[in-house]
Amino acid sequence: MTSDTEAAPPSPTTPPPATDVVVHVSGRVVGPGVVTLPAGSRVVDAVTAAGGAQPEADLDAVNLARVLVDGEQIHVPAPGEAVDPPGPSPGAGGDATGGSSGPSGSGATGVAPTGLVNLNTATLAELDALPGVGPAISQRIIDWRDANGGFRDVAELDEVSGIGPSLMGSLGELVTV
Predict the structure, then answer these.
(1) Domain with 33 in it
(2) Are the C-beta atoms of residues 120 and 177 closer than 8 Å to each other?
(3) Please, which residues bridge with residue 27 across strands?
(4) Residue 13 maps to a domain
(5) Averaged confidence pLDDT in the chain
(6) Stated pTM of the model
(7) Is the sign of the CA dihedral 121, 126, 132, 138 positive or negative?
(8) Which string of b and e fits 55-94 if b means at least 16 CB within 10 Å?
């Protein structure tokens, strides 16, 4: 006999405990799909959990060392394939190119519906496409975002090493959070 105070068993859609991250691994992996890993896991762990990369995978296009974000999409491309995942990535999603995309309202990319690049969801390639921002500064933006839980204001971009007043002035109207 059960009482009204007993907890119902979790439903299949109940989110995992905060100690886990759930990510969608797609592209050139042996077993694409959704995997659950311990918090703090890295992209390489997600690729391994999906059966590993296929021989034709372009792992140089993937930042295997990046820490995973719950709800993101990791896309392992083929050589020459566009780095954006092939469809919307719900929730705090992203791709494995070093970015961490999230609820930008624009699907899988870090470009907001307004055409602005969202600092909290942009991929390495999207940041690199900004004027005056190369791959090194793009990676520093992503590293700062990961270390600080994301940007709360565009002005925080000034805290990223290599971004001075001149670059801030040119980026201010091209980025959002």
Answers:
(1) 20-76
(2) yes
(3) 76
(4) no
(5) 76
(6) 0.44
(7) positive
(8) eebbeebbbbebbbbbbbbbbbbeeebebbbeeebebbbb
User: Two tokens at 31?
Assistant: 């077993």
**pLDDT (tens digit, 9 = 90+) per residue, 13-58?**
555 556 888 888 988 999 999 999 998 899 999 999 999 999 999 8
Give the angle subtended at the CA of 149 by the CAs of 146 and 154, to the nearest 5°.
95
Domain count, the chain: 2
* 63 domain-assigned: yes
Nearest to 177 by CA among 157, 148, 163, 161: 157
Calpha distance 177→168 (Å, rounded): 14
Which class for 12: exposed (0-12), middle (13-18), buried (19 or more C-beta within 10 A)?
Answer: exposed
**Residue 159: DSSP 8-state:** G
